[in-house]
Amino acid sequence: MHHSRREFLRASALVALAPAIPGFLGQFARAAVPDRDGRVLVVIQLSGGNDGINTVVPYGDEGYPRLRQKLRLPTAEIKKVNDRVGLHPELGDFAKLIEDGRLAIVQGVGYPNPNRSHFKSMAYWHTARLDSKDDNPNGDQFAPELVRDPGWLGRALEQAPVPSDRTPASVSVGLRPQPAALRSPRTVSAALARIDDLALAGDANPVAAFPKAASGDDVRAFVQRSLLDAYATADRLRDVAHAKDSGARYPATGLAGDLRLVARLLKAGFGTRVYYVEHDGYDTHATQLVTHERLLGELGGAVRAFLDDLKGAGLAERVVVLCFSEFGRRAAENGSFGTDHGTAGPVFLAGGRVKAGLVGMTPSLTDLDGGDLKMSIDFRRVYATLLDEWLGVPAKIVLGSDYERLPLFRA
Prior knowledge:
Layout: H1 5-14, H2 21-29, E1 40-47, E2 56-57, H3 63-67, E3 79-80, E4 86-87, H4 92-99, E5 103-110, H5 118-127, H6 152-158, E6 170-173, E7 189-192, H7 206-209, H8 218-241, H9 254-267, E8 274-280, H10 288-312, E9 319-325, E10 345-351, E11 357-359, E12 377-378, H11 379-391, H12 395-399
Parallel strand pairs: 1-8, 1-9, 5-11, 5-12, 6-7, 6-8
Antiparallel strand pairs: 2-4, 3-4, 5-10, 9-10
Helix pairs in contact: 1-8, 4-10, 9-10
């Protein structure tokens, strides 16, 4: 749901008429207590299928120059991580984050029996269910509103305490419609494109105009509580909209602007646990070199600026950034100076508490599965580690099974 402030207030009232009322009442009946350590997850969705091979480059693999004759990156320009693997030349900011101990690269991430449809694969990542239901089985354009299952983060937030300031449990920035990963019938989530999306001119208080709940009228009391919370949250957002950035420097890109907005909300003390943004354009079937170079430069610059901003504000230890894409690309380049839909790819985690460096084995370019990289790490292992060790939510309840944890965080 995308909300202006007035729409936000209206939705808060109308939700009382929805079938999910018992779930909402159940959530708001829980005590609003501070998070156990205020930890926050920021998700960056790299939409389109990022070419992991030219992102985390296996320059020491003899298969690389053979499979990437036109798209091969010059060895001298690659940002070396070790004597066989490096980062794209435009990811100098990521290389710096590794040096600073703030970036982990999980290699060979995917899922069994991979699907090359953008829609199906993204639905799997959003729900963490490989049997995820949808209403668009033949389409390839991802449409979150057509995914019927609740999202993995939505399910996770059902297990977490309500934010102590009753701000939304999750906020998506710049996405319409709301990401399916955040969907839940029992948690409150907001979507906004700009910091003033929830700012409403005038001082009228809709709560005052709403008839007072009679004793025992739980539904009306819930609606009043929702209106009051929404009004208070919107007022805080208005204050944030006019706050200064305290010298923070961000590149002039869309992704950097979205992360700057997230940083302003964090610095304002919002209790939201999960923020979600998108970086689109990774479906590089043709003329990949120029497009991919621009995208990765934007990604690296935005993430580093965001983390540096949080570090300067004393928030570095509270936030982890997760960057994922729905699938990687084929190992071999195509005839259009690009790459086609593949399978496994890298996942990035960044923040002050991550265990920096490479995690897992680098996929081999000489031992392929029908021309695709072999998956070595199920993405649900990444999720399980984030749930158990970062968000403090039981991963088995959210994911439905046990998954081996990964060494992603420092003790």
